[in-house]
Design a protein that fits this description.
Layout (H helix, E strand, L loop, with lengths): L14 E6 L6 H6 L1 H6 L1 E2 L2 E2 L4 E6 L14 H4 L11 H10 L4 H9 L19 H12 L5 H12 L1 H14 L5 H5 L11 H20 L5 H15 L2 H14 L12 H15 L4
Parallel strand pairs: 1-4
Antiparallel strand pairs: 2-3
Helix pairs in contact: 4-5, 5-10, 6-7, 7-8, 8-10, 10-11, 10-12, 12-13
């Protein structure tokens, strides 16, 4: 009958009460939550009107620890099945600095972002979570190639580990983002699309770092960024790079100081606007 201390006490509270893994609790425990979920109260405590209740859990067929939700409780929720979308993950990945080689590989092989098969006996499979593990591994420069291959295999599975490590080998031959933004490199000899994805993300990361540090001559670097992409990348990657810079990072671009911006806007403006959902 004692309400948890985490529950909001202010009657004017506006919040979301998130009950994660609700269906992992045995039916008796789920039943104990009836009073809070159905009646919005525990003992004398009353949940404020501005608090919405959201619950989450694995599907019954996902091989997780689940119990069937009692019908009276299930009937009090609107049930939605969530799925992985690459564009949503890309926004999150670039905002959270997931390693460019991981973003590059997944951008090229979008179907490999999530490949869970409940019928497979494998304990390792690709999900946004396990790719973030791979990102942490790649960032660790002390891990040798053989060990890294084994660790990636343990995170996303043997097949994807082989493909990802092959991608890394190609991506290692790419020019440095620093040299491109400094105008020292203008051409790209490697035309492998997954490598281009990685280089696009690497350029976005470096451009943002320089903007955050207020590096002198940043507008010229931004000009090199757009000029290089237009010269070397297919439309899909030019749009992805521009969307990341303009929307995700909201970088302080000054079109009047960028010689290439007029050409960029003429060639790609409508595609970028569509990607940004701007009318």
């Amino acid at each position: 009958m004692a309400p948890p201390a985490e529950l909001p006490m202010d009657p004017a509270s506006k919040a979301i009460l998130f009950l994660d893994e609700l269906n992992s609790a045995p039916p008796a425990v789920q039943a104990a939550a009836y009073q809070l979920i159905l009646n919005r109260r525990v003992g004398t405590y009353i949940l404020p009107d501005g608090v919405d209740i959201v619950a989450a859990g694995n599907r019954d067929g996902d091989k997780g620890v689940t119990f069937r939700m009692p019908a009276p409780l299930a009937n009090r929720f609107v049930h939605l099945e969530m799925k992985v979308e690459f564009e949503d993950w890309l926004d999150w990945a670039t905002m959270n600095r997931i390693h460019e080689e991981v973003v590059g590989y997944v951008g090229f092989a979008k179907q490999d972002l999530y490949d869970y098969d409940p019928k497979s006996p494998s304990k390792s499979f690709a999900t946004p979570r396990s790719w973030s593990f791979v990102s942490d591994m790649v960032y660790d420069e002390d891990i040798d190639t053989e060990t890294l291959t084994n660790l990636v295999s343990g995170a996303v599975g043997d097949g994807l580990a082989v493909k990802f490590m092959a991608h890394r080998k190609i991506a290692s031959k790419l020019p440095k983002a620093d040299d491109i933004l400094d105008g020292k490199v203008e051409d790209l000899e490697i035309k492998e699309i997954s490598a281009m994805y990685s280089l696009t993300v690497s350029l976005c990361y470096e451009l943002k770092d320089r903007a955050d540090k207020k590096v002198q001559g940043w507008d010229k670097m931004a000009d090199c960024f757009f000029k290089y992409m237009m010269k070397n990348f297919p439309t899909e990657l030019v749009v992805m790079g521009a969307k990341t810079a303009l929307t995700n990072y909201d970088l302080p671009l000054d079109a009047s100081k960028m010689k290439s911006f007029e050409e960029f806007h003429s060639r790609y403006g409508k595609y970028v606007m569509n990607a940004m959902d701007v009318d």
